[in-house]
Amino acid sequence: MRCLLFLILSLNLFASTLHLATSANPSRLNPILATDSSSSEITGFLFNGLVKYDKDLSTIIGDLAEEFTFEDEKTLLFKLRKNVKWHDGKDFTSKDVLFTYEVLISSKISSPYSSNFRFVESVEAVDTWSVRVKYKQPYFKALETWMMGILPEHILRDEQNLMNSSFNTNPIGTGAYKLYQLEHSKNIILKAYDEYFEGRAKIDTISFHVIADPMTRFLMLKSSALDVGSIEPMQYEKQLSSDFFKKFNIYENISQSYTYLGFNLRLEKFQNPKVREALSLAIDRKELVDILFFGHAKVCTGPFLPGTKAFNESVKAPTQNIQKAKELLKEVGYDEANPFTFEIVTSNASEIRPYAAQILQHQLKKSGVIVTLRVMEWQAFLNMVVFPHKFESVLLGWGLSPTPDPYMFWHSDNDKQGGFNLVGYHNLKINKMIEDSQSIIDGEKLSVMWREMFKIITDENPYLFLYIPNAITTLNKEIKNIEPAPSGIWHNYIKWEK
Fold it and tell me: How deeply is 345 buried, as exposed, middle or buried, from its count of CB atoms within 10 A (0-12, 13-18, 19+)?
């Protein structure tokens, strides 16, 4: 701790430094390979897409693209900004967009984001500053697809193995910040890029302190060693003094994420729908939320978030019914003499989830279900359990876009290495509905189909949908120009001052 504080003090030699914490080492600082939260967060400062959502999450606006137009239902033309430079000083051009697309669809990489480009028929660099994208059919996420960070063609064109490239730990982007230092398990330091096309960020340095232990992160926040931090509801309600609120502002809104218990449907023990229904009826979601969140969360009822056009209000969370759960288990051969047993695996990157696992263990025991728990370090959890599908059940979460894409999580195609259908969910009707929905650009028709998918998926219990937490963010009052919005506080971070 003393060494860490010394490092923090030394960073203050820079004109201004924003101190943040991340729970794990980033796996790859490459936008097309960043699948963990640490990598995604940091690459967001280093790279840009062609477009992005506005602060209200209501409209897609230009980022690297100055403007964009649909020439027809299947053709999209981007006009690129002419004043964008990579962190090494080279010009950003249409070659970079074409190159990024070609990498994403190549067999040399394994990226869950590649599936977003499956309807692209061709990408053409019309000239230095124009890109034309032709789709095989109308696609409802044609624009959102291009929020993907763009890669530098001039650096990576001869790279033979991007999955293990040194670029992933020494990235060159177009973002407001560039990588200055990467020390695994210590610090990741970013410095403001002087030539950023929207103007140089006013805060000179961002320092990410890699701190796996949630309590250490909390203590550093309380001591003002961090400027920005997320806090848990129990900490907010019970563990902060009035002095803390004199130094920090609190911003709270419902998160664009949910937590679930996912069953490995490749295993015979979870393939009987009665077993999954019994497990769903054995738990009390409201009790889980009440114990863990003190009113700072809501029960999750299905795979798409409230407030989106895909949310199905008619689907309610099951009410705990211990007797019915026991009856269903008995029908398939489980009782006190032969109890149903399984393991829940989760990560200590979240302070809440290990406690949630314990509560679930206790609730399930009332129905005669025996649960064992395993809590792992985040990267080990991802690399040894989640992505190799070596689990019975996982307690995990998804952050979702305002426009959901069921294909990534629920289509059989993505039950593969690197895919996000982690539990191996297969439903031919859902596959067909997802495929049909991709070409629907009528918003109301799409909403109706999504809401039907919502009910079908929820009824089958591939996940037990648990809770949607509020995001509670604390921010040092010394930081100026914060503008809270539906997208959160980060949309104008280049204007922040400290």
Answer: buried
Q: Is the distance from CB of 176 to CB of 45 less than 8 angstroms?
A: yes
Cβ neighbour number for residue 474 with a 10 Å cutoff: 24
Contact 48, 149 (CB under 8 A): yes
**From the centroid of its chain, how far is CA 391?**
21
Token digits of residue 124: 């053409």
Rounded to 10 degrees, the C-alpha dihedral 204/32/303/442 comes to: 100
Q: Return the DSSP state at 55.
A: T
The whole-number mean pLDDT for each consecutive block of 10 residues of the chain, a chain of 498 residues, reads 49 75 91 91 97 92 97 96 97 98 92 90 97 94 94 95 94 98 90 98 96 91 94 90 94 92 98 98 97 95 92 96 98 96 94 95 98 94 94 94 87 91 97 91 89 98 97 95 91 96
| Whether the predicted model's global pTM rises above the 0.85 cut | no
CATH architecture under which domain 257-470 falls: Roll (3.10)
* C-beta separation of 17 from 11 below 8 A: yes
E strands present in 197-256: 205-210, 228-230, 248-254
341-347 vs 393-399, strand pairing mode: parallel
* Range(s) within the chain of domains with CATH label 3.10.105.10: 257-470
